[in-house]
Specification:
The chain is an alpha+beta fold. It is built from three helices and seven strands; from the N terminus they run αββαβββββα. The radius of gyration is 23 Å and the shape is elongated.
């Protein structure tokens, strides 16, 4: 039986990394080193980027969504240089995948609100 692929969750991944690095003092306080927290955040963002490159839609809380976009191939041909008006050759381009980032509506509204300028 094939393994079921689990959808990537940034929050679950980050939570797991923080739980691994957290320690409890004798007083019962939770301590996390700043460098460990930085490494956990960077690792989780990298894992999210890899999941998005694999074709998955990855949501990052508050800041947006990352997804892979397919860019179609382009044939070679002749075109006109808009600045000089002379003919030029346009190179062929293979099909590629590029990252696409979309921001949530709440963040867009925050930037649109003049109160925060």
């Amino acid at each position: 039986m094939a393994k079921k692929k689990v959808k990537y969750s940034f929050l679950n991944d980050f939570h797991a990394h923080v739980l691994k690095t957290a320690t409890v003092t004798r007083k019962g306080e939770i301590r996390i080193k700043r460098t460990d927290l930085k490494n956990a955040l960077e690792t989780c963002l990298t894992n999210g980027a890899k999941a998005a490159a694999g074709g998955e839609r990855v949501r990052f809380p508050i800041i947006g969504t990352l997804v892979s976009k397919d860019v179609k191939a382009r044939k070679a041909g002749k075109g006109v240089n808009p600045f000089t008006g002379e003919e030029m050759m346009i190179k062929a381009r293979p099909a590629t995948k590029k990252p696409r980032w979309s921001f949530p509506r709440s963040l867009k509204e925050t930037f649109a609100n003049k109160k925060f300028w």
